[in-house]
Amino acid sequence: MNNSPPIPNTKNGKPFNDQIIEILISAGEFLNSSKNYNLKPIFKSKKDIVTKIDIEIEQFISDQIIKNFNHHNILGEENGGELLNDDYNWIIDPIDGTKNFFYGHPHYSIVLGLTYGDKIIAGFTYDPNRKEIFHAIQNQGFYINDKKFKVSNKMEFDNCFLSAEIPGSGIGSQKTIDFIQKIYADIIGLRISGSAALSLAYLASGRSDLFICYKLNIWDQIAGIIQITEAGGKVVDRYGKKVTLSSEGIIAGNEAIVDDFLIKSKSYSWI
Question: Is the entire prediction scored with pTM above 0.90?
Answer without folding.
Answer: yes
